[in-house]
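stage 2 :: seqdesign
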């Protein structure tokens, strides 16, 4: 069993090898999608040989003009390589600060395997790894493309995913810890509003206390001084006409309405109320309390199924098609939110209370004193999430919502998307709050579809 690692992750490959094989320097061949996923990924491979096939540079060159995050990542990767070039030449290898040797390689195999079309860049990148392995190098082909990894494996090449920024979705931080207590303890909690508790809870982590005998439950949060849990008061009233329908929706509202919590993540399947609660809280904070200048709402422009192609019109007209789920939630809120002189979404936009913006236009802006909601955040890479959250200016609150099991980005999954990564990276921070929503409240049919399909 050979084990090899970089960053925080540990990988294992089953193979028979001698002691010399164990001691040989690893050679990592990086696919283009790895650099697009994280332009700084080269720094993740320590004390190794890193090879960038020339075809990868060609693909980066094509992508660099794109106005989206792929173009930005391509430009950053090219700038990184240009900076490294000042310390040597890529043919002999450039020594990096992490102890690795970086090379750019162009290899044309003399006798490529049958059935491999040489007119495809993906195949030529894989054949670069294949040729280096024939030279006796200890090769690992790194790609976010599952099909490319399968093809590489078929040629006898060890192929791995880039997993430095991966988390285990099965153990993802919940934000709510469920605990069983006795009926006497529940009665004491009802009378005093507090409960002694020595177990450590993270900042902004809530406790769901259950009396299994009586079938009752109460929400509580840790006292800032420690040593006890403080019960939340019974919910009363609505937020812009919306009220929580279960305990975790209540926790979500607590975090969304708490100005000391500057970053909130809501994770859950379809119909759990993530977007609806976030928008209701944002409107309340902007319109009623006037804590923020306006609410900015955005989501990744990634189609579900086949793309509908070019959309005509000005920016707002183009965005309307992608933002319709946001507008649906706004219409639901406006249908029950009784406020004088507020009758339509267009009025919210006209009065500069609501701004709907494309993610590509947010990049590069400084965004102070805003209530920002990023919907469908599971379709963003960790690098994209970092870019967006780092835009938050003084007084801004950022809310990210999404379902890690419904991903439309072909190079991401439940473990590697930016939303899951952010939850694990930020847990325990005083400015951060999270809740995993579990129950769909949209309809009985929606609950079944989310659970069974």
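stage 2 :: out
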């Amino acid at each position: 069993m050979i084990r090899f690692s970089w960053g925080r992750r540990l990988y294992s490959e089953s193979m028979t090898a001698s002691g010399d094989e164990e001691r040989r320097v690893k050679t990592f061949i990086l696919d283009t999608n790895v650099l697009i996923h994280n332009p700084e990924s080269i720094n993740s491979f320590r004390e190794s040989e890193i090879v960038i096939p020339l075809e990868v540079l060609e693909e980066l060159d094509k992508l660099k003009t794109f106005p989206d995050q792929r173009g930005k990542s391509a430009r950053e990767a090219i700038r990184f390589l240009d900076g490294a070039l000042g310390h040597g030449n890529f043919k002999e290898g450039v020594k990096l600060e992490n102890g690795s040797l970086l090379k750019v390689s162009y290899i044309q195999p003399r006798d490529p395997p049958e059935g491999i079309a040489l007119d495809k860049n993906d195949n030529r990148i894989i054949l670069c790894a294949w040729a280096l392995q024939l030279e006796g190098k200890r090769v690992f082909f790194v790609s976010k493309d599952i099909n490319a990894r399968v093809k590489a494996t078929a040629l006898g090449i060890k192929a791995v995913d880039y997993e430095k920024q991966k988390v285990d979705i099965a153990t993802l931080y919940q934000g709510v810890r469920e605990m069983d207590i006795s009926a006497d303890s529940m009665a004491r909690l009802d009378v005093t509003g507090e409960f002694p508790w020595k177990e450590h809870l993270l900042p902004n982590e809530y406790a769901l206390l259950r009396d299994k005998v009586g079938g009752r439950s109460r929400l509580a949060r840790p006292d800032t001084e420690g040593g006890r849990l403080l019960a939340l008061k019974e919910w009363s009233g609505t937020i812009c006409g919306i009220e929580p329908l279960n305990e975790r929706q209540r926790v979500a509202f607590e975090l969304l309405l708490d100005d000391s919590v500057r970053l909130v993540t809501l994770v859950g399947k379809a119909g759990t109320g993530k977007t609806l609660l976030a928008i209701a809280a944002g409107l309340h904070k902007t319109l009623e309390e006037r804590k923020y200048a306006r609410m900015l709402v955005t989501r990744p422009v990634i189609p579900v199924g086949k793309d509908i192609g070019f959309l005509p019109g000005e920016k707002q007209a183009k965005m309307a098609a992608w933002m319709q789920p946001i507008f649906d939630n706004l219409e639901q809120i406006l249908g029950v939110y009784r406020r004088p002189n507020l009758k339509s979404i267009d009025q919210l936009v006209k009065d500069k209370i609501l701004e709907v913006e494309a993610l590509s236009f947010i990049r590069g802006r400084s965004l102070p004193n805003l209530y920002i909601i990023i919907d469908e955040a599971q379709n963003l890479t960790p690098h994209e999430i970092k870019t967006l959250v780092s835009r938050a200016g003084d007084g801004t609150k950022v809310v990210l919502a999404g379902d890690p099991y419904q991903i439309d980005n072909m190079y991401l999954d439940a473990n590697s998307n930016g939303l899951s990564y952010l939850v694990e990276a930020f847990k325990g921070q005083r400015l951060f709050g999270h809740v995993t929503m579990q129950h769909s409240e949209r309809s009985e049919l929606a609950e079944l579809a989310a659970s069974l399909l």
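stage 3 :: structure notes
- The first strand starts at residue 2 and ends at 6.
- The chain has two domains: 2-160, 241-452.
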